[in-house]
Structures are given as structure tokens and as C-alpha cells.
Write a structure and sequence with these properties.
The protein has 413 residues and is mainly beta. It has helices at 7-15, 38-44; strands at 2-4, 22-25, 50-53, 56-58, 61-63, 68-71, 75-78, 91-97, 104-114, 118-139, 150-167, 171-174, 177-187, 191-192, 195-196, 205-208, 211-215, 218-220, 238-248, 254-256, 271-281, 285-287, 295-296, 300-304, 308-313, 319-325, 331-337, 339-345, 348-352, 358-364, 370-376, 387-396, 401-404, 408-411.
Length: 413
């Protein structure tokens, strides 16, 4: 582990936009709070403002503003079961929609709950960026008949670092760019706690016409019925249609199809992909069900080692801890910057502001295949709510080809 000084954050602070107003939400009405619920704080806030949400359970909200929402303690956002409407529509608990180009919505340390006839988080028609850290969105209905953990539609740049997703499916992405890191994503099974769904198991992730990056994400499809022969088959962990899918990690990362129920005879792949491409890291564990393949379908599949980046932490006065996994023979260039809209270059997508590139590690990969770096974070309050981007340019030897890793974006709280 290499411990570095906070100079990187001092440089980053000089490029951050001026802070807006900080609003405090506290259902207990504690000192300094202005609101007891999140929705009126969102209505009052202006672009660039920060909303600090103290420990408690709150109702949902919707916005198209460039805001930062920071949870303190255990913050749950839950609206309870929805009411079906005609034409049939499922409403979200939290919705970020129509962010204009250049606008950024940031959130950290939240648990969003989906219920029957309600999605957890919906991101729709966003030309701006959404950065989430330690945000979970989970279906809590019983039995699990409906409710998507996260529904992402026509959103140009979503990064999600840390948290849990669960739902039917956990994540649905259409016409979007989504980068997920260090997440637990478990698809809904046909039966649970003795109660069975009427529609069987479901995949964890469904992507259509999207760019989807997964790094260090454990993903499992839903399992088939455990008590009857109805809907016996498990589901793939990931179903991708006409999408660019990259899945990387380390040897503790797994992508697994759901287990079979009694009477199941159909092999189920871990990933089902038709059209598009799948780049699959050979280091991670990929398991189909009943002997199913790692990848099935018509997509072009590339099985190879792929650089993987993880970054956690981000508390004022604490540390930002990063780890790069790649073959020991590689050359690693890990840098810190502020995030920008992703730009497509020959080595891959780059998420870094060229005005600020701070090297954190430049050199050969360790014999263990892991480089670990820890950066001290100063206590400067001007950094609170800032999104900090890390990314690696990895030189593969002996091919002498360069590839960019997934981004790892940490929110300072």
C-alpha cells in the first residue's frame, strides 16, 4: 500500500466550481435543519446546492436539477407500494430526469427501496452526468411481483460505485452509458421465504443498445422454483442486446446464472448476449446453470485479461483507497482528476478532465497483480460533495497495447 499526500485534492479544489447553499434535512428536526423531508428541500434548492440528509426514513423525490445529496448515518428513501394506473405505469421512488448537458447530479450513502408497482431509482433522458457512491436500490416487496431496482433510460453517463441492487430486474439500461464498480447485484428468484412469484425468476441486469461496464461486481441471476416444477429454470446474470458489455474484476468476482429448480433441464448461460460485443475478463468466475456456457448468443465475445480499477472511501480527513488489478507484466499509470463527460478514444472511454491529471502510481504492476494506493484527504470543507475520478492507462506487454480501465469515481463527504 502506497500512502500519498493530499496534494492531489488541493489541486482538485482549485478547479471545483463555487459551492452553492447547503440544506439540511432531518426528520427529527435536529439543530440547523431546515426540512423534515427531502422533496421540499429539492424543490427549494438551486443548481449547485448540496442537500445533507441525516439519519432516518424519508419519502421519495424527483428532480432535473444539478444537486448533491449526501446521507449521514442510515438514510432510507421509501414510498411504500405504488398504485397501478391506466395505462399501466410503475412509478419510481427516486427519479432523476432531463438533466441538461453539463449538469451533474451526485449522491452518496443512500438506500432506496422499491415496492410493488414502484421502481427504486429511475434515471431518464439525462444529457448530464449522474455519479452515485454507496447507493443501494432494492426491491423489498413480498412476494416479489414487480419493481425494478434501477431503470436507466437514455442517460449519457452514469457511474455507480459501491452499493447493492435487487429487483425485477435489478438493473435495466436502455440507450445509456453505465459504469458499475464494486457492487452486489442479485436477481430475483422464483421463490423466496416460501412465497413464489407468478412470473418466475428474472435476470439481474438487462441492457439494450447500451454501453455497460462492470468492474468487481458480483452478479447472479434469479433461481428457479424450489418447491414445484413450474418455472423451474434459473435466469442468466446478464442479458444484453445490441450492447457493448465489458466485465472485469479479480478472482473473487463472480458472474453466475441462477440455480435450477426441480425439473429444470435447460442449460442457462451466465451471460446471454445477442448482437454487440462482450469483453470478458478471464480472471473472474463465470458459471452457467446445468452446464450452461459463460456466454451464449450472437454477440462477438473476447475473452482476455482486462485491467480493473476499484476505489473506496472518500471521507474528509480520511483516505481514498484505490486498487488496480492487471497481469504482473503490465505497466500501470493510475491518475486522479475531476470527472468529465466520457470521451471515446482508441484505448477506450476516458472520464478525466485534462486540466488536472495527477499521477498516483506510474510503474510496473506488482508480482501479485495488484497495485494499492491510499491518498490522504484534507479536511477542507470546499471538497465536500465533490466527485473525484480515478482511471488507469494500462500497457499490456508483450503486445505493447494501451487500454483505459473503468473509471472509479469517489464522492467526498
Amino acid at each position: 500500500m502506497r500512502a500519498l499526500s493530499p496534494i492531489a485534492f488541493t489541486l482538485a479544489a482549485s478547479l471545483l466550481p463555487a459551492q452553492g447553499v447547503t440544506w439540511i434535512v432531518d426528520q427529527a428536526g435536529g439543530p440547523g435543519s431546515q426540512f423534515a423531508e427531502i422533496a421540499p428541500a429539492v424543490a427549494q434548492a438551486a443548481d449547485g446546492d448540496t442537500i445533507v440528509v441525516r439519519n432516518g426514513t424519508y419519502g421519495g423525490f424527483a428532480t432535473s436539477k444539478a444537486l448533491t445529496v449526501l446521507g449521514e448515518g442510515s438514510v432510507v428513501i421509501s414510498d411504500g407500494p405504488g398504485i397501478p394506473t391506466f395505462p399501466f405505469a410503475i412509478e419510481p421512488t427516486v427519479e432523476i430526469h432531463d438533466l441538461p448537458a453539463g449538469a451533474v447530479f451526485v449522491a452518496k450513502n443512500l438506500r432506496i427501496e422499491a415496492h410493488t408497482f414502484r421502481d427504486g431509482l429511475r434515471l431518464e433522458d439525462n444529457q448530464g452526468r449522474v455519479h452515485l457512491q454507496n447507493v443501494s436500490s432494492v426491491l423489498v416487496s413480498w412476494p416479489e411481483q414487480s419493481g425494478t431496482g434501477a431503470w436507466i433510460l437514455r442517460s449519457s453517463a452514469v457511474t455507480w460505485n459501491g452499493g447493492q441492487l435487487h429487483g425485477r430486474p435489478c438493473l435495466s439500461a436502455t440507450d445509456s452509458l453505465v459504469s458499475l464498480a464494486s457492487m452486489q447485484i442479485n436477481g430475483s428468484s422464483a421463490c423466496g421465504a416460501g412465497i413464489c412469484s407468478t412470473i418466475g425468476a428474472l435476470e439481474a441486469i438487462h441492457a439494450r443498445n447500451s454501453t455497460l461496464q462492470l468492474s468487481r461486481c458480483d452478479v447472479s441471476g434469479g433461481s428457479g422454483f424450489g418447491f414445484t416444477v413450474v418455472f423451474p429454470d434459473g435466469k442468466p446474470a446478464i442479458i444484453a442486446n445490441d450492447s457493448a458489455l465489458t466485465v472485469t474484476g479479480d478472482d473473487t468476482t463472480s458472474i453466475r446464472a441462477g440455480g435450477p429448480g426441480p425439473g429444470a433441464i435447460t442449460p442457462i448461460a451466465a451471460i446471454q448476449a445477442n448482437g454487440g460485443t462482450v469483453d470478458l475478463d478471464t480472471l473472474i468466475v463465470t458459471l452457467g446453470s446445468l452446464g450452461g456456457a459463460d456466454v451464449s448468443g450472437t454477440a462477438t465475445v473476447n475473452r482476455r485479461r482486462i485491467v480493473s480499477l476499484a476505489a473506496l472511501g472518500g471521507t474528509l480527513g480520511g483516505t481514498l483507497d484505490a486498487e488496480v488489478v492487471s497481469p504482473p507484466s503490465d505497466l500501470v499509470n493510475l491518475v486522479l482528476s475531476l470527472p468529465i463527460d466520457p470521451v471515446a478514444l482508441p484505448p477506450g472511454l476516458v472520464f478525466l478532465d485534462p486540466r488536472l491529471i495527477v499521477p498516483l502510481y506510474v510503474g510496473p504492476q506488482e508480482p501479485t497483480g495488484r497495485v494499492e494506493v491510499s491518498v490522504l484527504i484534507p479536511t477542507a470543507t470546499s471538497l465536500r460533495g465533490a466527485a473525484i475520478a480515478l482511471q488507469t492507462a494500462n500497457l499490456y506487454l508483450p503486445q505493447s497495447t494501451v487500454e483505459f480501465s473503468n473509471p472509479a469515481i469517489v464522492v467526498i463527504d
